[in-house]
Amino acid sequence: MKNTGTVYLVGAGPGDPDLLTLRAARLLMSARLIVHDGLVDPSILAMAHHDAKLVSVAKRRSHHTLPQEEISALLVREAQAGRDVVRLKGGDPFIFGRGGEEAEFCRAHGVEVEIVPGISAANGAAAAAQIPLTHRDHASIVSFVAGQCKGLSEQNWAGLAGKGRTLVIYMGVKTAPAIADKLMADGLSPDMPIAVIENGARPEMRVLRSSLAGLPDMVEAKKVKSPALIVIGDVTAHREDGALAQIALEAHQ
Predict the structure, then answer these.
(1) Domain 122-252 has what CATH class?
(2) Fewer Cβ within 10 Å of end Cβ, the chain: N or C?
(3) Does 59 qualify as catalytic in the annotation?
(4) Residue 252: its pLDDT value, please?
């Protein structure tokens, strides 16, 4: 008889329930304990089994319902009590989801872990906005960066964006002015096209376009709020009809 439960680190995708993997949906509908992030869409949580206990460990900027150490301890405690736990995360658990930390903690305490990948926020939001992250004519390299990273001014971002490259910045709304200044200081053209995708792959999604130099003013003028991704590169000028848009003035229309 199994005495210890399994922790399933499950990616909930960018928000649309139709973008869940079959494995994620099956676990969600059968689980009796779901520990979920704040960015998991309510329509996904509504798929949970009627007997499931839902535990929110929502994280927002400067405010965490539970510190990360306590979240990891909660997973281990419940599994050691013999319960299977679905740890439901927005996007993919191994892309800025701290899934690696939680998996390591569980394994260190003798708890079995299964990783269920999800469509990442970058992939899901870009697809919903019909922005190709790679394109034979425009980009063969994609980089993902956390916009809230410490020591932003000391890092060298010179090779992350530019001709033939796409840069996707997570969690960058609050630091948009510093991000724009940093990229331009490291040599990126102020005219580089960018897009901000707010609430990607959700009914309330907005796609805003500008130049790199116009990013801070656009974020402020349009009152952009998280969750939002900043995509930087020539691919962001790609429209739904396949043409390249003239985007320099779109931010204030």
Answers:
(1) alpha beta
(2) N
(3) yes
(4) 35
